Protein backbone atom coordinates (compact mmCIF):
# COMPACT_ATOMS: atom_id res chain seq x y z
CA UNK A 1 0.00 0.00 0.00
CA UNK A 2 1.18 3.48 -0.85
CA UNK A 3 0.71 6.89 0.77
CA UNK A 4 0.38 10.33 -0.80
CA UNK A 5 0.61 13.21 1.66
CA UNK A 6 -0.32 16.70 0.42
CA UNK A 7 0.73 19.70 2.50
CA UNK A 8 -0.68 23.15 1.76
CA UNK A 9 1.82 25.49 3.40
CA UNK A 10 0.10 27.87 5.82
CA UNK A 11 -3.39 27.34 4.34
CA UNK A 12 -4.90 26.91 7.80
CA UNK A 13 -6.20 30.20 9.28
CA UNK A 14 -8.42 31.85 11.87
CA UNK A 15 -11.86 33.38 11.21
CA UNK A 16 -11.09 36.44 9.11
CA UNK A 17 -13.05 39.73 9.06
CA UNK A 18 -12.79 40.37 5.30
CA UNK A 19 -14.15 36.84 4.76
CA UNK A 20 -17.17 37.59 6.98
CA UNK A 21 -15.75 35.72 9.93
CA UNK A 22 -14.94 32.58 7.95
CA UNK A 23 -11.57 31.01 7.24
CA UNK A 24 -10.14 30.80 3.69
CA UNK A 25 -10.69 27.03 3.76
CA UNK A 26 -14.37 27.58 4.60
CA UNK A 27 -14.80 30.13 1.80
CA UNK A 28 -12.87 28.37 -0.99
CA UNK A 29 -14.62 26.00 -3.39
CA UNK A 30 -12.81 22.73 -2.73
CA UNK A 31 -14.89 19.75 -3.89
CA UNK A 32 -11.88 17.43 -4.18
CA UNK A 33 -10.27 18.24 -0.83
CA UNK A 34 -13.73 17.94 0.73
CA UNK A 35 -14.07 14.51 -0.89
CA UNK A 36 -11.04 13.32 1.12
CA UNK A 37 -12.73 14.58 4.30
CA UNK A 38 -16.09 13.01 3.37
CA UNK A 39 -14.66 9.62 2.41
CA UNK A 40 -12.07 9.53 5.17
CA UNK A 41 -11.22 10.29 8.77
CA UNK A 42 -10.51 13.83 9.98
CA UNK A 43 -8.89 15.56 12.89
CA UNK A 44 -6.81 18.53 13.92
CA UNK A 45 -3.05 18.55 14.40
CA UNK A 46 -0.76 20.57 16.64
CA UNK A 47 2.29 20.72 14.35
CA UNK A 48 4.72 21.09 17.29
CA UNK A 49 2.70 21.56 20.47
CA UNK A 50 -0.48 23.50 21.36
CA UNK A 51 0.09 27.24 21.17
CA UNK A 52 3.57 27.05 19.65
CA UNK A 53 3.82 28.90 16.30
CA UNK A 54 5.91 26.57 14.13
CA UNK A 55 8.47 27.50 11.52
CA UNK A 56 7.99 25.75 8.20
CA UNK A 57 11.17 23.78 8.85
CA UNK A 58 10.30 22.44 12.31
CA UNK A 59 6.69 21.76 11.25
CA UNK A 60 7.74 19.70 8.22
CA UNK A 61 10.24 17.68 10.25
CA UNK A 62 7.43 16.89 12.70
CA UNK A 63 4.94 15.91 10.00
CA UNK A 64 7.54 13.51 8.57
CA UNK A 65 7.80 11.83 11.97
CA UNK A 66 10.91 13.51 13.37
CA UNK A 67 10.42 15.37 16.65
CA UNK A 68 11.99 18.79 16.00
CA UNK A 69 12.52 19.37 19.71
CA UNK A 70 15.06 16.53 19.56
CA UNK A 71 16.35 16.71 16.00
CA UNK A 72 16.32 20.34 14.80
CA UNK A 73 19.83 21.68 14.21
CA UNK A 74 19.19 24.97 12.39
CA UNK A 75 18.04 25.88 8.90
CA UNK A 76 21.30 26.35 7.00
CA UNK A 77 21.94 22.71 6.10
CA UNK A 78 18.43 22.36 4.63
CA UNK A 79 18.96 25.34 2.33
CA UNK A 80 22.31 23.98 1.18
CA UNK A 81 21.00 20.45 0.56
CA UNK A 82 17.89 21.79 -1.15
CA UNK A 83 20.05 24.04 -3.33
CA UNK A 84 21.82 20.93 -4.59
CA UNK A 85 25.00 21.07 -2.52
CA UNK A 86 26.39 17.98 -0.84
CA UNK A 87 26.42 18.43 2.94
CA UNK A 88 28.47 16.28 5.31
CA UNK A 89 27.91 15.58 9.00
CA UNK A 90 30.64 17.92 10.25
CA UNK A 91 29.80 20.81 7.88
CA UNK A 92 28.17 24.02 9.08
CA UNK A 93 25.88 25.65 6.51
CA UNK A 94 24.20 29.04 6.18
CA UNK A 95 21.55 30.75 4.12
CA UNK A 96 22.78 33.90 2.50
CA UNK A 97 21.52 36.99 0.68
CA UNK A 98 23.39 39.05 -1.83
CA UNK A 99 23.02 42.56 -0.42
CA UNK A 100 24.13 46.13 -1.01
CA UNK A 101 26.29 47.86 1.61
CA UNK A 102 27.84 51.33 1.62
CA UNK A 103 31.48 52.19 2.43
CA UNK A 104 30.75 51.98 6.17
CA UNK A 105 29.37 48.43 5.62
CA UNK A 106 25.88 49.62 6.46
CA UNK A 107 23.19 47.61 4.68
CA UNK A 108 21.44 49.75 2.06
CA UNK A 109 19.39 46.93 0.52
CA UNK A 110 19.17 43.47 2.11
CA UNK A 111 18.42 41.93 -1.30
CA UNK A 112 20.53 44.04 -3.66
CA UNK A 113 17.39 44.98 -5.61
CA UNK A 114 15.95 41.48 -5.22
CA UNK A 115 15.88 40.07 -8.77
CA UNK A 116 19.41 38.93 -9.44
CA UNK A 117 20.73 38.26 -12.85
CA UNK A 118 24.34 37.18 -12.57
CA UNK A 119 23.78 35.59 -9.15
CA UNK A 120 25.27 32.35 -10.39
CA UNK A 121 28.47 33.99 -11.64
CA UNK A 122 28.85 36.00 -8.43
CA UNK A 123 28.41 32.86 -6.31
CA UNK A 124 30.96 31.10 -8.50
CA UNK A 125 33.47 33.89 -7.78
CA UNK A 126 33.03 33.24 -4.04
CA UNK A 127 33.10 29.46 -4.27
CA UNK A 128 36.38 27.94 -3.07
CA UNK A 129 37.96 31.14 -1.76
CA UNK A 130 40.82 30.76 0.70
CA UNK A 131 40.62 32.55 4.04
CA UNK A 132 43.49 34.36 5.67
CA UNK A 133 44.34 32.53 8.91
CA UNK A 134 42.13 29.52 8.09
CA UNK A 135 43.66 27.93 4.98
CA UNK A 136 42.27 24.50 5.95
CA UNK A 137 38.61 25.58 5.77
CA UNK A 138 36.75 24.87 2.54
CA UNK A 139 34.28 27.57 1.53
CA UNK A 140 31.52 26.21 -0.74
CA UNK A 141 29.00 28.63 -2.26
CA UNK A 142 26.02 28.08 -4.55
CA UNK A 143 23.44 30.49 -5.88
CA UNK A 144 19.89 29.20 -5.23
CA UNK A 145 17.05 31.53 -6.31
CA UNK A 146 16.76 35.30 -6.85
CA UNK A 147 19.17 37.05 -4.46
CA UNK A 148 19.75 33.94 -2.33
CA UNK A 149 22.64 31.56 -1.91
CA UNK A 150 23.79 28.72 0.31
CA UNK A 151 27.18 28.58 2.04
CA UNK A 152 28.81 25.42 3.38
CA UNK A 153 31.90 25.61 5.62
CA UNK A 154 33.86 22.36 5.65
CA UNK A 155 36.69 21.67 8.06
CA UNK A 156 37.50 20.42 11.54
CA UNK A 157 36.09 21.77 14.80
CA UNK A 158 33.25 23.85 13.43
CA UNK A 159 30.08 24.67 15.37
CA UNK A 160 26.62 25.87 14.35
CA UNK A 161 26.34 27.88 17.56
CA UNK A 162 27.12 31.26 15.99
CA UNK A 163 25.02 34.37 15.42
CA UNK A 164 23.96 35.87 12.06
CA UNK A 165 25.93 38.48 10.13
CA UNK A 166 22.56 39.56 8.68
CA UNK A 167 21.18 42.51 10.67
CA UNK A 168 17.68 41.50 9.41
CA UNK A 169 16.87 45.12 8.58
CA UNK A 170 18.29 47.93 6.53
CA UNK A 171 20.37 50.92 7.76
CA UNK A 172 22.25 48.73 10.19
CA UNK A 173 25.83 47.50 9.65
CA UNK A 174 26.75 43.93 8.75
CA UNK A 175 26.87 42.30 12.17
CA UNK A 176 30.04 40.90 13.66
CA UNK A 177 29.30 37.22 14.22
CA UNK A 178 29.77 36.00 17.77
CA UNK A 179 29.72 32.57 19.44
CA UNK A 180 26.43 31.46 21.07
CA UNK A 181 28.03 29.08 23.55
CA UNK A 182 31.31 28.84 25.46
CA UNK A 183 32.92 26.17 23.24
CA UNK A 184 36.21 26.79 21.44
CA UNK A 185 34.53 25.48 18.25
CA UNK A 186 31.91 28.24 18.39
CA UNK A 187 34.44 31.03 18.84
CA UNK A 188 36.62 29.56 16.09
CA UNK A 189 33.59 29.35 13.75
CA UNK A 190 32.58 32.94 14.56
CA UNK A 191 36.08 34.12 13.54
CA UNK A 192 35.84 32.07 10.34
CA UNK A 193 32.45 33.52 9.41
CA UNK A 194 33.74 37.05 9.99
CA UNK A 195 36.71 36.28 7.73
CA UNK A 196 34.28 34.94 5.11
CA UNK A 197 32.19 38.13 5.23
CA UNK A 198 35.27 40.30 4.79
CA UNK A 199 36.66 38.23 1.91
CA UNK A 200 33.27 38.07 0.13
CA UNK A 201 32.93 41.86 0.35
CA UNK A 202 36.40 42.37 -1.17
CA UNK A 203 35.74 39.98 -4.05
CA UNK A 204 32.24 41.29 -4.81
CA UNK A 205 33.25 44.95 -4.65
CA UNK A 206 35.73 44.39 -7.47
CA UNK A 207 33.66 42.04 -9.59
CA UNK A 208 32.90 43.07 -13.19
CA UNK A 209 29.20 42.18 -12.78
CA UNK A 210 28.94 44.83 -10.08
CA UNK A 211 30.76 47.38 -12.23
CA UNK A 212 28.16 46.69 -14.92
CA UNK A 213 25.31 46.89 -12.39
CA UNK A 214 26.53 50.31 -11.22
CA UNK A 215 26.78 51.51 -14.83
CA UNK A 216 23.18 50.42 -15.42
CA UNK A 217 21.98 52.24 -12.32
CA UNK A 218 21.45 49.01 -10.36
CA UNK A 219 22.53 48.45 -6.77
CA UNK A 220 25.77 46.46 -6.60
CA UNK A 221 25.53 43.04 -4.93
CA UNK A 222 28.66 43.82 -2.92
CA UNK A 223 28.11 41.83 0.27
CA UNK A 224 26.64 38.56 1.52
CA UNK A 225 24.46 38.51 4.65
CA UNK A 226 24.57 35.16 6.42
CA UNK A 227 22.01 33.62 8.76
CA UNK A 228 20.62 30.35 10.11
CA UNK A 229 23.82 28.40 10.81
CA UNK A 230 22.90 24.73 10.80
CA UNK A 231 24.17 21.16 10.64
CA UNK A 232 22.52 18.03 9.28
CA UNK A 233 20.02 16.53 11.74
CA UNK A 234 21.22 13.20 13.18
CA UNK A 235 18.25 11.04 12.28
CA UNK A 236 17.41 7.56 11.05
CA UNK A 237 16.44 7.88 7.37
CA UNK A 238 12.82 7.11 6.54
CA UNK A 239 13.79 3.96 4.62
CA UNK A 240 15.34 2.53 7.81
CA UNK A 241 12.44 3.60 10.01
CA UNK A 242 9.66 2.20 7.82
CA UNK A 243 11.29 0.43 4.88
CA UNK A 244 9.66 2.86 2.44
CA UNK A 245 11.04 4.56 -0.65
CA UNK A 246 10.03 8.22 -0.32
CA UNK A 247 9.79 11.04 -2.83
CA UNK A 248 9.04 14.74 -2.43
CA UNK A 249 7.52 17.07 -5.01
CA UNK A 250 8.40 20.58 -3.78
CA UNK A 251 9.93 23.68 -5.29
CA UNK A 252 11.30 25.65 -2.32
CA UNK A 253 14.96 24.79 -1.57
CA UNK A 254 14.36 24.50 2.18
CA UNK A 255 11.54 21.94 1.83
CA UNK A 256 13.55 19.91 -0.63
CA UNK A 257 16.53 20.05 1.74
CA UNK A 258 14.55 18.92 4.78
CA UNK A 259 13.19 15.97 2.85
CA UNK A 260 16.63 15.06 1.49
CA UNK A 261 18.05 15.18 5.02
CA UNK A 262 15.68 12.40 6.13
CA UNK A 263 16.16 10.28 3.01
CA UNK A 264 13.56 11.43 0.47
CA UNK A 265 14.36 11.56 -3.24
CA UNK A 266 13.69 14.94 -4.85
CA UNK A 267 12.46 15.69 -8.37
CA UNK A 268 12.24 18.87 -10.40
CA UNK A 269 8.86 19.79 -11.88
CA UNK A 270 8.78 22.42 -14.65
CA UNK A 271 6.26 25.10 -13.65
CA UNK A 272 6.57 24.42 -9.91
CA UNK A 273 7.90 27.68 -8.48
CA UNK A 274 7.25 27.72 -4.74
CA UNK A 275 5.11 30.87 -5.19
CA UNK A 276 1.43 31.69 -5.82
CA UNK A 277 2.13 31.36 -9.56
CA UNK A 278 3.04 27.69 -9.24
CA UNK A 279 1.53 25.05 -11.54
CA UNK A 280 -0.19 22.79 -8.99
CA UNK A 281 -1.51 20.32 -11.55
CA UNK A 282 2.02 19.80 -12.93
CA UNK A 283 3.01 18.77 -9.40
CA UNK A 284 0.12 16.32 -9.19
CA UNK A 285 1.06 14.83 -12.56
CA UNK A 286 4.68 14.39 -11.45
CA UNK A 287 3.52 12.64 -8.27
CA UNK A 288 1.21 10.28 -10.16
CA UNK A 289 3.88 9.48 -12.77
CA UNK A 290 6.44 8.66 -10.11
CA UNK A 291 4.10 6.75 -7.80
CA UNK A 292 4.99 3.28 -9.17
CA UNK A 293 8.58 3.65 -7.91
CA UNK A 294 7.72 4.91 -4.43
CA UNK A 295 5.79 4.02 -1.28
CA UNK A 296 5.47 7.48 0.28
CA UNK A 297 5.06 10.59 -1.85
CA UNK A 298 4.88 14.07 -0.35
CA UNK A 299 3.56 17.01 -2.35
CA UNK A 300 4.31 20.39 -0.80
CA UNK A 301 2.63 23.58 -2.10
CA UNK A 302 3.90 26.88 -0.79
CA UNK A 303 1.66 29.69 -2.18
CA UNK A 304 -1.01 29.87 0.54
CA UNK A 305 1.56 30.88 3.13
CA UNK A 306 2.92 33.66 0.88
CA UNK A 307 -0.62 35.05 0.45
CA UNK A 308 -1.12 35.05 4.23
CA UNK A 309 2.13 36.91 4.88
CA UNK A 310 0.93 39.48 2.32
CA UNK A 311 -2.46 39.71 4.08
CA UNK A 312 -4.15 38.92 0.73
CA UNK A 313 -7.35 36.97 1.52
CA UNK A 314 -8.52 36.75 -2.07
CA UNK A 315 -5.16 35.35 -3.17
CA UNK A 316 -5.21 32.82 -0.33
CA UNK A 317 -8.68 31.57 -1.28
CA UNK A 318 -7.57 31.31 -4.93
CA UNK A 319 -4.46 29.38 -3.88
CA UNK A 320 -6.55 26.89 -1.89
CA UNK A 321 -8.70 26.38 -5.00
CA UNK A 322 -5.55 25.79 -7.07
CA UNK A 323 -4.53 23.13 -4.56
CA UNK A 324 -7.99 21.58 -4.98
CA UNK A 325 -7.20 21.14 -8.69
CA UNK A 326 -4.05 19.27 -7.66
CA UNK A 327 -6.09 16.98 -5.41
CA UNK A 328 -8.63 16.40 -8.19
CA UNK A 329 -5.88 15.18 -10.50
CA UNK A 330 -4.65 12.79 -7.79
CA UNK A 331 -8.15 11.42 -7.05
CA UNK A 332 -8.86 10.97 -10.76
CA UNK A 333 -5.59 9.21 -11.53
CA UNK A 334 -4.60 6.91 -8.68
CA UNK A 335 -6.20 3.66 -7.55
CA UNK A 336 -7.92 4.78 -4.35
CA UNK A 337 -8.27 1.12 -3.32
CA UNK A 338 -4.53 0.81 -2.81
CA UNK A 339 -3.37 4.33 -1.99
CA UNK A 340 -3.93 6.32 1.18
CA UNK A 341 -4.33 10.03 0.55
CA UNK A 342 -3.76 12.51 3.36
CA UNK A 343 -4.26 16.26 3.23
CA UNK A 344 -3.09 18.82 5.79
CA UNK A 345 -1.27 22.11 6.41
CA UNK A 346 2.12 22.58 8.07
CA UNK A 347 0.91 25.39 10.33
CA UNK A 348 -1.69 28.11 10.66
CA UNK A 349 -0.71 31.42 9.04
CA UNK A 350 -3.04 34.23 10.04
CA UNK A 351 -4.09 36.55 7.22
CA UNK A 352 -4.94 39.26 9.74
CA UNK A 353 -1.69 39.02 11.71
CA UNK A 354 0.37 38.08 8.62
CA UNK A 355 2.35 35.56 10.63
CA UNK A 356 2.43 31.96 11.85
CA UNK A 357 0.30 31.28 14.92
CA UNK A 358 0.00 28.30 17.25
CA UNK A 359 -3.50 27.05 16.29
CA UNK A 360 -3.86 23.42 15.16
CA UNK A 361 -4.33 22.57 11.47
CA UNK A 362 -7.02 20.39 9.87
CA UNK A 363 -6.20 16.87 8.64
CA UNK A 364 -8.10 14.40 6.47
CA UNK A 365 -7.03 10.85 5.51
CA UNK A 366 -8.82 8.53 3.09
CA UNK A 367 -7.97 5.03 1.95
CA UNK A 368 -8.98 1.38 2.19
CA UNK A 369 -10.22 0.43 5.68
CA UNK A 370 -10.01 3.94 7.12
CA UNK A 371 -12.66 4.52 9.83
CA UNK A 372 -14.60 7.22 7.98
CA UNK A 373 -16.32 9.72 10.26
CA UNK A 374 -19.20 12.14 9.69
CA UNK A 375 -17.09 15.17 8.63
CA UNK A 376 -18.18 16.39 5.18
CA UNK A 377 -15.92 19.39 4.58
CA UNK A 378 -12.22 20.07 4.97
CA UNK A 379 -11.84 23.08 7.25
CA UNK A 380 -10.38 24.06 10.60
CA UNK A 381 -13.86 23.97 12.18
CA UNK A 382 -15.29 20.83 10.53
CA UNK A 383 -12.21 18.65 11.00
CA UNK A 384 -12.25 19.36 14.75
CA UNK A 385 -15.33 17.08 14.87
CA UNK A 386 -13.48 14.17 13.23
CA UNK A 387 -12.55 10.71 14.42
CA UNK A 388 -8.84 11.38 14.77
CA UNK A 389 -9.49 14.01 17.42
CA UNK A 390 -6.46 16.17 18.16
CA UNK A 391 -3.04 14.74 17.44
CA UNK A 392 0.59 15.96 17.34
CA UNK A 393 2.39 16.62 14.06
CA UNK A 394 4.95 13.95 14.88
CA UNK A 395 2.11 11.35 15.04
CA UNK A 396 1.00 11.84 11.43
CA UNK A 397 3.62 9.79 9.59
CA UNK A 398 3.37 6.88 12.08
CA UNK A 399 -0.43 6.83 11.55
CA UNK A 400 0.00 6.83 7.76
CA UNK A 401 2.70 4.16 7.86
CA UNK A 402 0.53 1.97 10.09
CA UNK A 403 -2.48 2.31 7.78
CA UNK A 404 -0.28 1.35 4.82
CA UNK A 405 1.09 -1.69 6.67
CA UNK A 406 4.64 -0.45 7.23
CA UNK A 407 4.78 -0.29 11.04
CA UNK A 408 6.30 -2.71 13.52
CA UNK A 409 4.54 -3.98 16.63
CA UNK A 410 5.60 -2.51 19.97
CA UNK A 411 5.78 -5.34 22.52
CA UNK A 412 5.14 -9.05 22.20
ZN1 LIG B 1 5.12 26.65 6.21
ZN1 LIG C 1 5.27 31.45 6.47
Structural notes for this entry:
There is one protein chain. The chain is of the alpha/beta class and 412 residues long. It has two domains: 2-68 and 235-403, 3-Layer(aba) Sandwich (Alkaline Phosphatase, subunit A); 80-230, no CATH class. It is 33% helix and 20% strand. An eight-stranded mixed beta sheet has the order 9-8-10-1-11-14-2-15, sandwiched between helices. Strand 5 (138-143) and strand 6 form a beta hairpin. Helix 12 (303-309) runs antiparallel to helix 13. The longest helix has 22 residues, at 184-205. The radius of gyration is 22 Å and the shape is globular. It starts with a strand and ends in a 9-residue tail after the last helix. One zinc ion is lined by residues 10, 56, 305, 309, 349, 356.
What keyword list fits this structure?
binds zinc ion, alpha/beta, 15 helices, 8-stranded mixed sheet, 15 strands, Alkaline Phosphatase, subunit A, 412 residues, 5-stranded antiparallel sheet
Summarize the topology.
Elements: E1 2-8, H1 24-27, H2 31-39, E2 41-46, H3 56-63, H4 68-71, H5 76-82, E3 92-101, E4 107-109, H6 119-126, E5 138-143, E6 148-154, H7 184-205, H8 208-215, E7 223-230, H9 238-242, E8 246-249, H10 253-261, E9 265-267, H11 280-290, E10 296-301, H12 303-309, H13 313-333, E11 339-345, E12 348-350, E13 355-357, E14 361-366, H14 380-383, E15 389-392, H15 393-403
Parallel strand pairs: 1-10, 1-11, 2-15, 8-9, 8-10
Antiparallel strand pairs: 2-14, 3-4, 3-6, 3-7, 5-6, 11-14, 12-13
Helix pairs in contact: 3-10, 3-15, 5-10, 11-13, 12-13
The protein binds zinc ion (ZN) (2 copies).
Amino acid sequence: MKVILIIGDGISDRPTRVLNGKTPLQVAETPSIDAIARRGICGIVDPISPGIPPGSDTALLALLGYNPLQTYTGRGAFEALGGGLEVRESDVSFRGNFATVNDELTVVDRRAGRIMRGGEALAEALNGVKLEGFPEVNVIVKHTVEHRLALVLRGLNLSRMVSDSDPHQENLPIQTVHPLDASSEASRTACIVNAVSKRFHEILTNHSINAARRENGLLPANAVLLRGAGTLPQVKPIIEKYGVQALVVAAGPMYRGICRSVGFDVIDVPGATGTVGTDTVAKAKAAVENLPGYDYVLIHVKGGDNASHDGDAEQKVRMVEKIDALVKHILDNVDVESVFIAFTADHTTSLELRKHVGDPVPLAIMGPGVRADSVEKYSEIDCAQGGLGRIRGVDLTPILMDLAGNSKKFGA
